[in-house]
Amino acid sequence: MKAFVVDKYSKKGILRLAEMPEPVLQDNDVLVEIHAAGLNPLDSKIRDGEFKLILPYHPPFVLGHDVAGTVVRVGSKVRKYKPGDEIYSRPRDGRIGGLAEYIAIHEADVALKPKNLTMEEAASIPLVGLTAWQVLVETANLNKGQKVFIQAGSGGVGMFAIQLAKHLGATVATTASAAGADLLKALGADIIVDYRKDDFEKVLSGYDVVLNSQDAKTLEKSLTVLKPGGKLISISGPPDPEFAKAQGLNLMLRLVLRFLSRGIRAKARRRGVSYSFLFMCAQGDQLSKITSLIESGVIRPVADRIFPFEATNEALAYVETGRAKGKVIIKIG
């Protein structure tokens, strides 16, 4: 099969289009013919080697965290899916590989594709949808009447999280340029801070939850908009000791991550709020709940551009510009 491969960790390295063996199907796997794949900033970070200590892949490996396609074969223990099913998934860490013609995925990581979405639209959902769900529903337990600040509303996670938070009944604030304001209002944002003109920490206050996706400086500023008891949840780091424990990292790495996060954790404690790091995980059952929201019209996908499979390197470079409004998709089959 054709696949785009990382031959070595390299910042802004070029993926190689290669002929690779078809994935080996394990007992609990479904073999999927991929029709479309989503790209994410995480793909660049994996290729660059930013996570190689906590997510070690051994080159050459196939990149790609979002897939939509058709089941062509199932393992002997699979009960939920059959050949011909149209599915979408964020394959679990250690088994990524969406930038290929085929992928084997554990059935627990899979959900039926929303009936009202194309394959390309469906491929835009899994990683950002699960990230937003795990931040707002699983970690923050966001409730009706609460206030949430979602940074970078025009990004893939931001656009999904705004819609989900609004569905949960929260007041939603976000940051964006003036050019993106109308779209974000249509998605459900109540307050839009123009980051080119205003400092969000001077505009917002009394928030229950902050979803941080930006740099360390922005992370620290985010503490100031929370009310006592509020929750600062970061998807861009630094990882905290709880994450290290959940990942089963060795003692040395646990100590390193404890050191890296001690500053923000201490500042959070002094302000009477909590800090946690979330690295989303594959979860087919949660993705099925997201499917229901999409099919009912509560959430809609927002795609920026669709690239042909052969232009995957150009598409990844476009993601790295940070200018995409929504998701960047690769059309494969």
Automatic annotation (TrEMBL):
InterPro entries the UniProt entry points to: ADH-like_N (IPR013154), ER (IPR020843), GroES-like_sf (IPR011032), NAD(P)-bd_dom_sf (IPR036291), YIM1/Zinc_Alcohol_DH_Fams (IPR050700)
Molecular functions (GO terms): oxidoreductase activity
Superkingdom of the source species: Bacteria
Main enzyme class: oxidoreductase
Alphabetical list of Pfam families matching this protein: ADH_N, ADH_zinc_N_2
PANTHER family (alphabetical): ALCOHOL DEHYDROGENASE RELATED, RETICULON-4-INTERACTING PROTEIN 1, MITOCHONDRIAL
Protein name as annotated: NADP-dependent oxidoreductase
Taxonomic source organism: Mesorhizobium montanum
